[in-house]
Predict the 3D structure of the following.
Amino acid sequence: MAVGSLPYVDVEPALSLIVETTPEVPAWPQLPRRSFLENMYAQFAEGLPGLEIDVAGGTMVQHHNIPDEDLMSFAEALGSGDLTRFAISPESAAGLHALPDLLSRLPRPATLIKGQVTGPVSFCLQLTDEGRRPVLYDDTVRELVTEMLTARAIWQQRFLQEAAPDAAVLMMVDEPFLTQWGSGYLSMPDDLVVAPLEHMLGALDCLAGIHVCGGTDWSKVAALPVDLLNFDAADHSGALLAHAEAVAAFVADGGLLAWGVVPNDDRALSLAPQAAAATLLDGVRALAAVGAVGEDQILAQSYVTPACGTGALPVQTAEACLRLAASTSELVRATRM
């Protein structure tokens, strides 16, 4: 399973790599080098009242003085149920709009397709106002962002379902800032984290997952209405295993795990599938040792991924990451499943 971003400027090589390495769970590629509009925050920001995007400068700023007519128009679009306003444009997501082409190239019809959206917590911590203060702490803007991202995720879910009517949809919510949840380095009160995520996840009518490319309090994440946890197992498996009881209970209740055992750096160029598989199996054994769930069930409910997105990597390294994830998955299936 891919994590999201790839370092190509053009769509074509991205589609080819996905078909080659992740045909069982195809995902549309984010291409941040193609345009600032494909940056993981700008990509989903279009149409937010009060937002100013400088594409050439690669910046976004949120203004507090939002015209009343803009707020009314936004509220009317939400209330109408017509999600056209929240469609993700081809300019912002060329890979998403190439999905029908991607699906037509698969060796067999997909049974699961993966989408992604930036989560409201990370979005609101990344986006700042005129005073460079994160909008997470502005109740009005935080609510606007949460509603916008939720509507955009629902629109995307429907787009994916129309593209592949016989496949299930997995919507991954990218939340890199959750690495700071509970750390003390950044003010992230539980109510400012849980409520927006519960709102978004609860509105989806498909499988939903959360990706955090680092350590976090996985017991809190597992308590959210989520079906899959995607984590960095290459460098931060200890953070997950520190909450082994909560994670094991999550799996015992049917939850899925996506193990990011492939480091998203130059180590992927030389790491053997056997080494990545050993990392995964060590984690599985440690999780099973809690006693709530066995190794076989954990493996049956697991995927292999890179530790994080590869959009900032050299092309050769990114390709190695996805190929190593694919070969590691094949090895584990051949030897343990």
In short: Residues 41 and 123 are 6 Å apart (CA to CA).
